[in-house]
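Deliverable D4.2, example record:
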Amino acid sequence: MIGSLDLALSAGYLLAIFGIGLWAGLSRKQTSAGSYFLAGKTLRWPTIGLALFATNISCLHLVSLAQSGFDSGLLSGNFEWMAVFVLILLALFFVPFYIRTGVTTLPDFLERRYDRACRDWLAGISVLSAIIVHIAFSLLAGGIVLQTLFGVGMYTSVIVISVLTGIYTIVGGLRAVVVTESIQTVVLLAGALVISAAAWQAMGGWEPMEAVLRQEGSLDRLSMLRPAGDEMPWYAVFLGYPVLGIWYWCADQTIVQRVLGAKNEREARLGPIFCGFIKILPVFVFVMPGLFAYTLWKTGGLDLRQLIRPETGTVDSKGIYTLMITQLLPEGLIGIVIAALLSGLMSQISGALNSISTLVSYDLYARFRPGRTDRELVRVGRISAGISLLVSLALLPLLNQYESLFNGINDIIAHLAPPITCVFLTGIFWGKATALSARYTLWIGSAAGVLVYAGGKLAGIGAGIPFLLMAFYLFVFCLLLQVVLTWLAPAPASSLSWKSPGEALKNADGTGGGYRLAAVVLLIVMTGLFWLFR
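Output generated by the structure prediction step:
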């Protein structure tokens, strides 16, 4: 349980974000669909970059990355640093394509590039993934932490936060989302830095931590790239993560919607690159504290008795982040870290709700009501966001059965992403890819993913294959399927694809460069970091 000062700080922050969100949304009229769903195309690169990061990082990340740091060291940091390379792809190749084609949603792009059936399929999958991956799992992780800290029932706490976040998101649209996310990113990072500094100080720095790992023969916990036979070998990371990452960062409406609201092409490109620089931090401020917690436990600096499972005598590491907060921080600082947790939770919910409302309004409702007004679209978007929030809350008891929430999410994404990643890559870079091939790749590829996932869970089929490697195998299957189908039933090449990679690197609206140099610098920095922690 926490003290009254920390409780007051947490409640004050929650109310402040609620007020700012309402002010941001109501300070400008939201009667047009463009202003509500895409912030009137006014967003600049700092806001886009911060909003991208805030939408990605949730309370789930803070809790589960610390857990993975405790369990396996820096290994899960690959999910953060590999994302940087995908963000560069987003900035250089995907962003200009989306901006120039003038799409409002990514399913809209699939219709223009392929056909209506592809749009409908992606819209449905995107709404479903936003409800499960972006909202429900985040609510579950937040509820577990808040229950431990405040002693309030898990469902009570997440319902209160969901209602407050839902109100300013549904009322204010994308403008309210990105304004609050920009603030929440700063608070989230500040809280993460506080817990990182506390763990560093309690351990006495890097060398004592390294000495503990050396003494017990587990220095491999400091390595990002693991050999064959490991739970996540290096080749699985480099082959499989791009399949997950391209879907998540380049083809998921919840993420890309921030870019679609950019003022111009230059701002849209610089936003993801800025986010890429911020993505360097999570390994040090989210994963590393878990590793310090492990060595503190080994040296007696952290008491984990309340996390010991009585039936097995092993540590239930899901609660490690909460334990670090209560044991390593003084009163006052605990409130700051709780505010960071609330930031991650609220930003994830608000971003997903806004994307769901956009998808339902533009990709589903507008199809059946071609004569609809902008006011109707906004109203339908608000109603769909509210319903989605209720569905997410109803899913919590089912999802609570996962032991590792972070691995659970990525396992689901590994079986969901391959066909979507395939049709987006071929759609943008291969003009000969046909609508028929894309349609059947989405249908058959998704069915294959479901069958493989069910076979693994029910019959243990492919149990020894890392999920990242499974994602790569499914992607290769989808790619071969689309190539063969295109060859069997060819059609005229589409004009909606890059003729060459160099074409994508030039700004069509004359807003200047700068992003190319930023991308090169970011590539050099990431190559150096992977070399240091290889």
